[in-house]
Amino acid sequence: MNYSPVIGLEIHCQLATKTKLFCGCEIEVNTKPNKHVCPICLGLPGTLPAPNKEAVNLAVKLGLALNCEIDTRALWTRKNYFYPDSPKGYQITQTGTIPAHDHPICKNGYIEIISGNGEKKRIGITRIHMEEDAGKLVHDFSPESSHFDANRCGTPLCEIVTEPDIRSSEDAVLVLQKIKQILEYTGVSNANMENGNMRCDGNVSIRKSEDAPFGTRAEIKNLNSFSNLQKALEAEMALQAVTLDSGKEVEQCTKRYDANHNKTIVIRSKEDSHDYKYFPDPDMLRIFIDENLINSIRESLPELPDARRARFESDFGLSSYDAQVLTADKEVSDWFDLASKNCKNPKLLANWVTSELMRELKEMENGISALKFKPEDLAQMVNLIEDNTISGKIGKTVFAEMLATGKDPDSIIKEKGLVQITDTAEIEAIVRKVIEANSAQWQEFKGGKAQLRGFFVGQIMKNSGGKANPNLVNRLLDELA
Ligand code: ADP
Ligand code: MG
Ligand code: ZN
């Protein structure tokens, strides 16, 4: 493509509270329609919404994790629209059309990504605002009518808006991944894209060169996976390139992505973009946040992914790639971190986790929490390899048994008699037996055919049931040759 893309994301996530944003109704998925509703979330006249403190705390926590300034006088506004998914006829949010009415709870933050070429890039976070979700219209319940389920009404959401700082669809995916990771590490949201509690809108425009002014953008709504984000951006960029190449202009519009046809489709053009007539909600006070609260939330922040990754690199001597793999998923990362505390060789442990364990996890539905054995058990198995009680090869047998039964490595080794043979005399007997049985090869090996070493080590290991200490085997071969 002869153009450079400019991309900005708007990411919506559901805050992990027990109850809704302005009432005490529980948040529960997969429940009976209209089970969790009350006069407030139905927006009945005469009711007064009161903000959920936990939701505010989570939004502040997210803002701090994304290096934002916190607005200590955030303002609730009404976004007015008519659509039957909202009985009130408006959404309570934190966006205003004039600056005095625009006080989102967080603004001016940033995150860092490491681009494919290893380059570190800073992406600005314009703002984070809180808002309530709408209800759900159900059209497939009956052929004659549409039905309304208000369970989602008033569910607390955050919208995170990035600056148009992203320069490729790959980087856009890295930004979304990093934000998802931070949401998970902080516990601000479950950030599950499949369940729809995290969604992303992608804004993209193209321009002739990196220093040309920004082009006109299209906004692609509701992308629900990393791959759809990337594919939708690519499809839209290609379409804009064709438009510009044919001498036409890109028109600003809102689109959706049709994954089956890999195409972006216009939902509405700028001309019919809505006028939401935002105004401060007269039912709501500003959110007064004091410095003490901000400080205590800052202190409660857990170790964030970038910091953990740096620690894994420096404390354990891991490569940047391995540290990245081990911090990508919070649960896996916590598990490894716990295991490493009991391990004499965390780097070797990291190898086991990134290769053997992760291969198994791919096959498991419920992730690492469903493992039958504990982090300490894998640490202990690595310790046994480290102190030569078992070989790495035996380790695989022990590991398979741990997976299947959840037994600890010491019991498995005792039960199966897998302890490594480190008695020189015992190994020498095996070595001599193997030499005798393969005397022609032995002569060649002695004569300098070094490639045969692998053959002999293999035979000796086989004869010892995999239990001979490989270092001793090699030393004996050298001595006897
Ligand atoms: P709106 O209020 O209409 O949604 P914003 O200015 O808030 O518009 O921008 C929304 C998103 O679009 C942001 O993520 C921003 O980074 C991105 N964006 C703004 N201008 C462009 C552009 N020219 N090309 C690509 N993305 C853009
Ligand atoms: Mg917007
Ligand atoms: Zn309610």
Q: What keywords describe this structure?
A:
alpha+beta; Arc Repressor Mutant, subunit A; three-stranded antiparallel β-sheet; 15 helices; 40% helix; elongated; binds adenosine-5'-diphosphate
Please, could you describe this protein's structure?
With 481 residues, the chain is an alpha+beta fold. It has three domains: 4-297, no CATH class; 303-416, no CATH class; 424-480, Arc Repressor Mutant, subunit A (Orthogonal Bundle), CATH 1.10.10. The protein is built from 15 helices and 16 strands. The chain has helices spanning 53-65, 169-186, 226-245, 291-300, 305-316, 320-328, 330-340, 346-363, 375-386, 392-405, 409-416, 424-437, 439-446, 452-463, 470-480; strands at 4-14, 69-70, 73-74, 77-80, 90-93, 106-114, 120-132, 136-138, 147-149, 156-162, 198-207, 218-223, 253-258, 263-269, 279-280, 287-288. A nine-stranded mixed beta sheet has the order 2-6-7-10-1-11-12-13-14. A hairpin with a 5-residue loop joins strand 6 and strand 7 (120-132). Helix 7 packs across helix 9 and helix 9 (375-386) packs antiparallel against helix 10 (392-405). The radius of gyration is 30 Å and the shape is elongated. The termini are far apart. The structure holds adenosine-5'-diphosphate, magnesium ion and zinc ion. The site of adenosine-5'-diphosphate has 14 residues, from strand 1, strand 10 and strand 11.
